[in-house]
Predict the 3D structure of the following.
Amino acid sequence: MERVFDFRAQQSTSRRATALFVLLFAVLTAVVGGAIGAAVAIVFTYRNDAIRIDEYEPGVALFLGLLACGVIIVIAWMRFASFGGDGSRVARTLGGEQIYETTADADEKRYFNIVEEMAIASAMPRPAAFVMREEDGINAFAAGANPERAAVAVTRGALTRLSREELTGVVAHEFSHIANRDSRLNMRLMGMVFGLVVLWVAGRSMLQIFRFAGRGSGSRSRGNGGKAIAIIMIVALALAVFGFLGMIAGRLLQSAVSRRREYLADATAVQLTRDPVGLAAALKRIGSESHGSRVRNAHAAEARHMYFANASGSISSFGGMLATHPPLVRRITALDPHFDPLTDPIWLGRAPRYEDKAADDAGPVPEASSSAGPWG
C-alpha cells in the first residue's frame, strides 16, 4: 500500500517531544540551581582551613538552590521582555522590507496574495509581509509574540526561484509557527539559556578578578581576609562550572526543541495546504541550489532558530545536536516517503525552476542591432 504523509501523527509526535524537552529544561534549571546551592552550602562549613561536612545544613542548601533558580528565572524573564513581541521590528532588524498590496513587482504581488490566502486558511489575522531583498538564498521566517503582532518574511531568492506551490508551502510553514506560538516559545527558551550564560559569565569574571588581585596580595592573603577570598573563589568556581555545564545542556535542549517544532510546522503546513508536494519541493530546491538557504544578514546567527531552513550554511558541532533544523533529507522524507536523493530531478537540479519558466514566458530576448557596440 502506498504510504502517504500523516500530518496528524506528525503533529502529535512533535508536540509530545516538545513537551518532554521543555520539562527537561525545567529540570535542568532546578539541577543547576540545586548544584550551586549545595556547593555554596558546603563552603559555609569551612572552618580552620578545612571543610566540616558534619556541619552541612540541607536547609541552607535548599534555600540557596531556590535562590539560584530564582535568579535564573528573573534574568530569563528580563531577557524575554527585552525582545518585545513586535514581529515587524524583528523583520526589519533581519533585513526585511515591508511590502503592500499595491506593490508593482509581480513576484512580490504573488507572495502577498499567498499570505492573504494562508491567513484565510488558518483563520488568523493577515501578518505584515516582508521581503529580504538582499538575500539570494531560499529562506523565510515568522516573528511575533501573537498572531495580531506577527510578521512573515521571505528572501528574494525564495520569490524568484520557487513556484507558486513551493512558495505556498514555505509561507504555510511560517504561518504554522505563528499558529503554534513557536516564536514565543523560542524567545522563552532563549531567555532561559541566557540566564545560565549569565551565571557562567559572572563566575568566570569573579575568578579573573581574584586571580589578578591575588598576585599582589602577599601575606595579606593569610588570615580572615584570605579565608573570605578563598570562600568567594569557591563560590565563583561553582557558578562558572555549573553555569557552563548548564549553558551547554540548555543549548542542546533548545536546539532539540527547535528541531521538533520544525517537524510540527511542516505537518501543520500540510494541514493548511493539503499539499505535502509543494513544501517538499521547496526543501529539495534548497538542496539543489548553490546559495542553499544561507542568509548573510549580521543578525542571522542569533535568530537562526527562526528561519525556515539553516541560515548559517555551517554544520553544527556535537554531531548535529546543536543544529536548530533537522537535515533536509529527513524533512523531505517525512513529507515524501518515496524521495530518493540519487534520482529525484529537483534535488539533483535537473527540474526547471520558476525563474527559468518565467524567462521562457517572457519570450526570446530581441537581438541587438548591427550598429550596437560590444556592450550594446
The first helix runs from residue 7 to 43. The radius of gyration is 26 Å.
